[in-house]
Specification:
Blueprint lengths: L1 E12 L2 E12 L3 E5 L6 H8 L7 E6 L5 E4 L12 H6 L3 H18 L6 H18 L5 H11 L16 H15 L3 E5 L7 H12 L4 E5 L3 H7 L2 E6 L2 E6 L2 H36 L5 H13 L26
Parallel strand pairs: 3-7, 3-8, 5-6, 6-7
Antiparallel strand pairs: 1-2, 1-4, 8-9
Helix pairs in contact: 3-4, 5-6, 9-10
């Protein structure tokens, strides 16, 4: 099922054309790596998908009630009050409301011993309790601890004021909250920037089991290999889609570039041959045929020269991992 579709999406800043005519789709369960040279508009595109800024042209269609979570590259919680624990638990606002309602029903039951009111309340409590359990009400605090631990937080940091956190810690705290919110579409701009190796590997595993969809920008090729099932390459103002992880993308890209180079060279050879025929025969006995060929050339859709691989520098770096030596 497609959850997001872009048609002819474009973005301009004044006279500067960042990208134009982007067409792509994200389906439920897709884990997309957005790659491309620096300055091609990856962060701008993510912000458009997150609804934080509008496209200049084109349309963006989302599935009804789509819940989108977004991690900025330089996420900051400097103006956020509270602690790491309170921030993480804010992802469960609905569950905590249900929990408070259950507690209120328990108090009411204790003060309503007489029938039939007690039985009516007990039935209401049972239904509310079943819904609470089904929604993960009895495990959400355990899940919160698992996510915080996975992202490298010690238990001592749980009740530390967020204002005392470093920039990297604030980014990790924001990532934790987003993961706990269970969005339908998770947009992550450089999520591994402030993670150590153990946390990166934990995040890989967590995203592999993510029930929704993910679009991520990262400079860790190993991370992209583990996480991505699809690659969007944004370069020179356009976007291309490749199926598979980052390794598959690099091979497919090389194959596609080679095929396009051959198609381009074949067309150039055809054009040169036709132009030579026109030059030799335009004023001779085969003038009409030469004029016809010239008109066909004028209508021919010219192929662009393929961009060489060396012109796209993804600048992907990754920490040394066990088994890499």
């Amino acid at each position: 099922m497609t959850i997001l579709t872009a048609h002819s999406l474009g973005k301009y800043f004044g006279a500067q054309d960042i990208f134009s005519d982007l067409d792509f789709a994200i389906s439920r369960g897709d884990r997309v790596a957005l790659v491309g040279p620096n300055g091609t508009g990856k962060t701008t595109l993510i912000r458009i998908l997150a609804g934080l800024e509008p496209p200049t042209t084109g349309q963006l269609h989302q599935a009804k009630n789509l819940k989108v979570g977004y991690l900025e590259q330089h996420a900051s919680l400097a103006s956020t009050t509270g602690t790491l624990w309170s921030l993480a638990l804010s992802a469960f606002t609905g569950l905590r409301r249900q929990e408070a309602e259950l507690q209120a029903l328990e108090v009411e039951l204790a003060h309503t011993p007489d029938e039939p009111a007690h039985s009516t309340l007990l039935e209401k409590y049972g239904e509310a309790q079943a819904q609470f359990e089904l929604a993960g009400g009895y495990t959400y605090e355990q899940t919160t601890r698992q996510v915080l631990t996975g992202l490298g937080f010690e238990t001592e940091a749980y009740h530390k004021p967020l204002t005392e956190f470093s920039g990297g810690e604030q980014s990790r705290a924001q990532l934790a909250r987003l993961l706990l919110e269970q969005s339908d579409l998770l947009l992550l701009d450089e999520p591994t920037n402030h993670l150590d190796l153990a946390s990166v590997e934990w995040l890989e595993s967590y995203l592999q089991n993510w029930p929704g969809s993910v679009l991520v920008v990262a400079h860790d090729r190993y991370f992209l290999d583990k996480v991505a099932t699809k690659v969007f390459e944004l370069s020179f103002g356009s976007i291309e889609t490749y199926n598979g992880n980052f390794t598959h993308y690099t091979q497919q890209r090389a194959d596609r570039l080679e095929r396009r180079q051959k198609e381009y060279e074949a067309q150039q050879a055809f054009i040169a041959k036709e132009q030579e025929f026109i030059r030799r025969n335009l004023a001779g006995q085969r003038t009409r045929e030469a004029q016809g060929r010239r008109k066909r050339l004028e209508r021919l859709e010219k192929l662009d020269r393929p961009v060489e691989q060396k012109q796209i520098n993804l600048n992907l770096q990754a920490p040394l991992r066990s088994g890499d030596l």
